[in-house]
Design a protein that fits this description.
This protein is an alpha/beta fold and 362 residues long. The chain has a single domain, classed as Spore Coat Polysaccharide Biosynthesis Protein SpsA, Chain A (Alpha-Beta Complex). It has eight helices and twelve strands. The chain is globular. This is Glycosyltransferase family 8 protein. It comes from Hymenoscyphus albidus. Pfam families: Glyco_transf_8.
Amino acid sequence: MGTSRYDKPRPLRSSRLFRLFLIILLCIILPYRLFSRIQQWRHPSAGLNLAYATLLFEDSAHTTGKDADAYFVSVRMLNYQLLHDPKTRTKKNIPFIVLTTPGVDMWKVAQLSMDGATIIPDEKLDTHWIQPGQSRWQDVMTKLRVFELVEYDRILFLDADTYLFKNLDSIFDERGAQPLKTRHKKPEIKNDEARLPDEYLFATLSEVTQSLHTYPPLPMSYFNAGFFLLSPSIELYEYYLSLFPLNRFETIYPEQNLLNYAHRQNGNMPWSRLHYSWNIQLPSMQDVKEGVASVHAKLWTGGNELQPVPQELRERWEAKKLEMWEYYSNGLQQQRRYEEDWKKGLYGGPLHRHMRYGSGHR
């Protein structure tokens, strides 16, 4: 029996080949897109330019007694914890920026640069008009200059007297650490204030006002400006500056009260709330046992009668300082060597490896 021409296999038509190609392509792309979306949802900071930052004043060079250079040592320790300490260092190679005012000794700037910090020299803002609660707060408005660093997408600002217990990298992925659209409530729009940006990011935690407190601490509408996450913005920075002459806030806590006014909860740019476990002021050992990631306190002192620093925390700070000296091999002798070299005019180029000027600085 002969074979019919109808029994021969038919070639696939081009349209069927195209449909098959599309199906294969979709089977590859869809899972990838889904995975990417999940990763973006879980890690919204992926691909962003992130940084940690603090501010070092020259005032610390003029302290005496056991507090001599305490803030400089604390900045070095913060740098060590953020960049080098295996227990707390960044896993994402996030840089640590140290803003320095003009009077900071150059041997200190050189030392911090050698330690790995990114140094950004900055000018002070004119704040002769403020009446701070303590004279050493006269220039703290300079902290606002961190908002000029627009080459970064997100910055976590930490006061120099911050001590870490845990890695902080995942704070950038927090729900509260994402930009918000600016509100447009007309009663809150002031004609004598600069224009608000279309979106902003300012996230922080409630103030803690007493050493004896619960954990988690009670939420407040007022925050402490020693630990906050921001998205740099020249427009936002200009808005802050526009508030200087308007008498809208008490200057006893200068930058803190300005920021609390600018980001008041009933205003058009309310602050976002970070999880309470990231940082706390007036820390207790109970806070540490409960798992707080960092504390904001001068752990090199005993505090005072109303706000004592727990002895165990002071001992941990001292132990970490010794660990840092050991890491840097020569410890205090290395620090003194840089000071002596500078006085002798032997200062060379190491500083410039990590020193630069941020854009938009005045």
